[in-house]
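Step 1: inspect the first sequence and its tokens.
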Amino acid sequence: MWNSIMGKTVVVTGASKGIGKGIARVFAKAGANVAVVSRNFEASENTAKELQGAGGSAEAFVGEVTNLESMQAMAKSVVDTFGGIDILCANAGIFPSSTIELMTAEDWDLVMNTNAKGSLFSIQACLPYLKEAEYGRIILTSSITGPVTGYQGWSHYAASKAAQLGFMKSAALELAGSNITVNAVLPGNIQTEGLEGLRDDYLKKMTNSIPLKRLGTPEDIGYSALFLASKEAGFITAQTIIVDGGQIVPESLDAMV
């Protein structure tokens, strides 16, 4: 799709499953060297082997996004393996549910540390190498929840995803002088392992709320990230792409065709 991705090295956090795995697949198909990063080496290795089996260039790495030293060690290992880092897809995140009445300080801190601080640590770890690249690309996986919409039980998650976008704008200004762009993809409802076990009627209701009448795939997010990572997107920074099948557009279900 984008020839400029060929041979570039991309770090994808949270890449062992879900959206992160879809992003990793798309970059591998485009000819990138994919650093599959998760907290669990076996999970990373399984995904890396799957990408290798499909003809891609991929290796497994361990990185805990809430621990800067862990992420720095991961980044160094990636550079030792592939020779550099050109692209960071800061995708790792969690989305536990808790009402405001029952939410504890620990619940709040866990989500904010993983989703918001995790983006910071991922960037800090990769930044020295991104600065050495021909051009650097940072793509955050945010969400429509928080920046655009709300959902009961996800106030801490929504806050963390909105925080990512505020962070992104200032980060884009700071890093522009180093020829590094910083952008974000905002997924809607995506068919991942997180939806397994939900009732069929709930999934049907979810699908019916989307104008395109289907849930998104992890690869839908991956292709958006791929574009933002390309040389062709080099004049785009501090921007967001909503990838939701039109989910946020109707003011009510009555507006649906």
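Step 2: inspect the second sequence and its tokens, then contrast the two.
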Amino acid sequence: MILEHEIPNGSKLYFGKSAKLKRQIENVASEVLDSAGYEEIVTPVFSYHQHKSIADEKELIRINDEKNNPLSLRADSTIDVVRIIEKRLGQNTTQKKWFYIQPVFTYPTTEQYQVGVEFMGEKNLSSVMNLSVKIFEKLELNPLIQISNMKIPQILTEMFDTLSIDDFRHINIDKFISLKVDWLNKLVYLQHLEQVDEVIAIAPQEIADELQKMKDLCADMKCENVVLAPMYYAKMLYYDELYFRCIVDNEVYARGGRYKNSKLTSVGFAIYTDALCEALDK
């Protein structure tokens, strides 16, 4: 029996102090983004295209429209925002900087509130990453910034037949070390900026080039609390190169990176409002 006061597992309820904290986070973020030239967009809850964003389609909450075409609830905002601006609003606006404050939904009943940012046509990830740092500073938070590069796992799977992308998704360190390759071992344990040049000097050129991109991104950042994670691989389908996460005590507060939709390269990130509410409440 379901009691009258019960809500589905994974759903969110904000009231009193928690509702005030949620609004504070959203207000701070919108003020920072508005001053940086970003405009707000709110996308439909229902989408025909979520399968293009989500690696595991089992996470989608599926329904059908009146003509029995498959729909799903919005499980990710990034590609929908870019697609709507480019394909539907493209004739009416030249604006490339957008932000949104809205939840996403995953199976079976999970809600996750986000503040998201997309800079369409931009390739420099630091342009948005520094905005996330600024928002956290205004909230008096100092998360650890973890820098990764999605191309490195992809290149390694091509170089070593025994490696798969799942090894990187699950960070299978034992398997990497078992290959007994000196530069690969150093890559596995690469964390700090001062270690990068040593690995670049001995790694194959295509790996060295991608490590240099990570080094350059760190130089462009307005934050010193940074670590490197070259073996990390994101679960989303669209990230194709530089990527970052903002972490406090193993809790991810934000993540973002460079991505492609069709031929358009863009950068963006999402701040996870629910995690921030819990942190600020403490």
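Step 3: confirm your contrast with the notes below.
The chain has ten helices and eleven strands. Residues 147 and 228 are 5 Å apart (CA to CA).
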